[in-house]
Design brief:
Blueprint (H helix, E strand, L loop, with lengths): L2 E2 L2 H13 L4 E2 L10 E3 L12 H6 L4 E4 L9 E3 L3 H16 L3 E5 L4 H12 L5 E3 L9 H7 L7 E5 L7 H9 L3 E4 L7 H4 L2 H17 L3 E5 L3 H6 L5 E5 L5 E7 L5 E6 L2 E6 L7 H14 L4 H10 L8 E4 L4 E5 L5 H13 L5 E6 L8 H13 L5 E5 L13 E4 L2 H10 L6 E5 L14
Parallel strand pairs: 1-5, 2-3, 3-4, 4-5, 6-8, 6-9, 7-8, 9-10, 10-11, 11-12, 16-20, 17-18, 17-20, 18-19
Antiparallel strand pairs: 12-13, 13-14, 15-16
Length: 436
C-alpha cells in the first residue's frame, strides 16, 4: 500500500505507525530486513531513486519526497530531511533521557569518545558514531537511542552560522560542553565573531532549559560566555574537579584531585592539548557519580583511532600522526606541543589547511613563522596554500601534494628521527607513514 502524508500534521503518526522500533537507514546499500529507509538528497545523488532498491533489500518502508518514485511501502512527505529531523526530535522527547551536547573547534570528537567511555562505566550510554555530527548525523544519532538508553551524548559540528542552534533544536541537550572556540572554516562563517556566536548557541540553549554546562576554567572566553549561569568548571583550577599535567611525553599523564586523594591517569593521548579533553570527561564522570577509579579505568583504556594523534614506532623512526583535521588553532597548538617535546632529529610535516577563505594566506604564513621558531631539523610543507611560503632555506621543502613527498622519501629516506605529521583529512597524510 502507498501512504501519502502531510508531514506537519502526521510526524507522530509516521513515527508510531512505521518508525518506532525500527532502525533508520539513509544508504540503500546498507538496508537490512526490517529497516526504514529515508531518501535524502545531496549535491550528487537523489535518494528517491533508491527507494525501490531499499524495499527490495528488505526495508519495511521508504520515506520519499518525490511522488514520481511512489510504489508500495513508500511514504510520501514534503521534505525527507525535515522529516528525519522531526522524527528524531519526536523520538528524543518520547525517550526523555538526559543528553549532553558537545561542540567546539578542536577536540570535540576525542572528548565525546572519552565521555562515552567514562559514562558507560555507570550508565547504558549512546553517543555519536565517529564524527557524524551534522544536520543528518545528529538526527541519526538520536534515532539510534532506545528505551534502554540511560544517557545520550551528541556531538555537534558547524561550518556555517546558526548551525549549532539548529542542532540544539533537534537534540534539546540538557547539559553542554564547548571544548574551545578557535579559528576554523572561516570561509563558511565569515568572521571569528560569527564562530563565537554559533558555538555559544549551545550554552544559550542549555541555559534556557535550566540545564548545566561544563567549562574549562583556564579558557577565558568560555568562562566569560558562561558567566552568571549554572556551570561547573574543571582544569588546573575549577570548582568541580581540579587536575594537573604530570607528563606529556610520550603520552599524557595527569592527576585528578578526588575526595580520597590524588589519582594518576596514564592516557594513550599525545600532547598537552589533550589535558582539557581528558579533564572534561573526568569532570563529567565525576559530576554524574562515576567512581573515580572507574574514570581512571575508562580513560586509560581509550586508544585514539581515526588518525587522531597516534604515536607510531616504525623500524626507523618515531612518528606522531594527526591526519584527521586541521585548522589554525589546532595546527598552532600541535606545533607548539611538538616543539616542547624532548627528542633529537625532529622533523615537521604539515599539510595545507582548507576552507579558510580570505584569511588563508595569513594563516599559513603564521604556521611557517611558528615552525621556524621550533628548531626543527627538517620541515616539509604540502599543498598549494603553502606554495608562497617556499622559503629559500635548505631545511624547508615544499611539495604540491602528498604523492610528491612520498616519491622523495622513497629515494631519500629519513631515519632515526622524531617526526610529527599534521594536516587535514583531504591531504591523506597517513600514506606517508609507510615510507618512514
Amino acid at each position: 500500500m502507498f501512504h501519502q502524508h502531510d508531514m506537519t500534521e502526521t510526524i507522530t503518526e509516521i513515527y508510531e505507525q512505521f518508525v518506532h522500533g525500527h532502525h533508520i537507514e539513509t544508504d540503500s546499500r546498507k538496508v537490512k530486513s526490517g529497516d526504514i529507509f529515508i531518501a535524502l538528497k545531496g549535491e550528487n545523488f537523489n535518494g528517491n531513486e533508491y527507494a525501490s532498491t531499499a524495499i527490495k533489500n528488505g526495508a519495511t518502508a521508504a520515506i520519499i519526497d518525490n511522488p514520481q518514485y511512489k510504489e508500495e511501502k513508500c511514504i510520501l512527505v514534503k521534505n525527507t530531511l525535515k522529516c528525519l529531523q522531526e522524527l528524531a526530535h519526536y523520538h528524543r522527547k518520547r525517550l526523555g533521557l538526559p543528553i549532553l551536547g558537545i561542540t567546539g573547534t578542536n577536540g570535540k570528537t576525542t572528548t565525546k569518545e572519552l565521555c562515552h567511555a567514562v559514562l558507560s562505566k555507570k550508565y547504558k550510554t549512546s553517543a555519536t558514531q565517529g564524527n557524524f555530527n551534522n544536520h543528518i548525523g545528529v538526527p541519526l544519532t538520536l534515532l539510534n537511542m532506545d528505551e534502554t538508553t540511560e544517557f545520550g551524548i551528541v556531538e555537534m559540528g558547524a561550518n556555517h552560522p546558526g548551525e549549532i542552534q539548529d542542532l540544539c533544536t533537534i537534540a534539546e541537550p540538557d547539559f553542554g560542553l564547548i571544548t574551545n572556540i578557535g579559528y576554523a572554516h572561516l570561509e563558511g562563517f565569515g568572521s571569528y565573531e560569527n564562530i563565537i556566536a554559533t558555538k555559544k548557541a549551545l550554552y544559550e540553549h542549555v541555559f534556557a532549559k535550566k540545564g548545566k554546562v561544563f567549562v574549562s576554567a583556564s579558557d577565558n572566553l568560555l568562562m566569560q560566555l558562561s558567566e552568571g549561569f549554572n556551570r561547573s568548571t574543571y582544569g588546573n583550577q575549577g570548582n568541580l574537579l581540579k587536575g594537573e599535567i604530570k607528563q606529556s611525553v610520550p603520552y599524557l599523564v595527569y592527576t585528578i584531585i578526588t575526595p580520597k586523594g590524588q589519582l594518576y591517569i596514564k592516557t594513550h593521548l599525545v600532547g598537552d592539548y589533550n589535558f582539557d579533553n581528558a579533564m572534561a570527561a573526568s569532570a563529567i564522570g565525576f559530576h554524574f557519580g562515576v567512581d573515580p577509579l572507574k574514570i581512571q579505568e575508562a580513560i586509560e583504556a581509550y586508544h585514539p583511532s581515526n588518525l587522531r594523534s597516534q604515536l607510531i614506532k616504525s623500524e626507523h623512526n618515531t612518528i606522531i600522526l594527526d591526519a584527521y583535521n586541521a585548522n589554525p588553532s589546532s595546527m598552532q597548538a600541535s606545533i607548539n606541543n611538538f616543539r616542547e617535546m624532548p627528542g633529537e632529529h625532529k622533523v615537521l610535516i604539515l599539510g595545507e589547511m582548507r576552507e579558510l577563505g580570505a584569511s588563508s594566506l595569513k594563516a599559513h604564513e603564521t604556521l611557517i613563522d611558528l615552525a621556524l621558531r621550533g628548531n626543527f631539523e627538517k620541515i616539509f610543507l604540502i599543498g598549494n596554500n603553502f606554495e608562497h611560503c617556499n622559503e629559500k632555506r635548505n631545511f624547508i621543502t615544499w611539495f604540491p601534494d602528498t604523492e610528491s613527498l612520498i616519491k622523495t622519501l622513497r629515494t631519500n629516506p629519513i631515519t632515526e628521527s622524531f617526526i610529527f605529521i599534521k594536516g587535514s583529512r583531504r591531504n591523506r597524510l597517513e600514506r606517508i607513514v609507510e615510507c618512514l
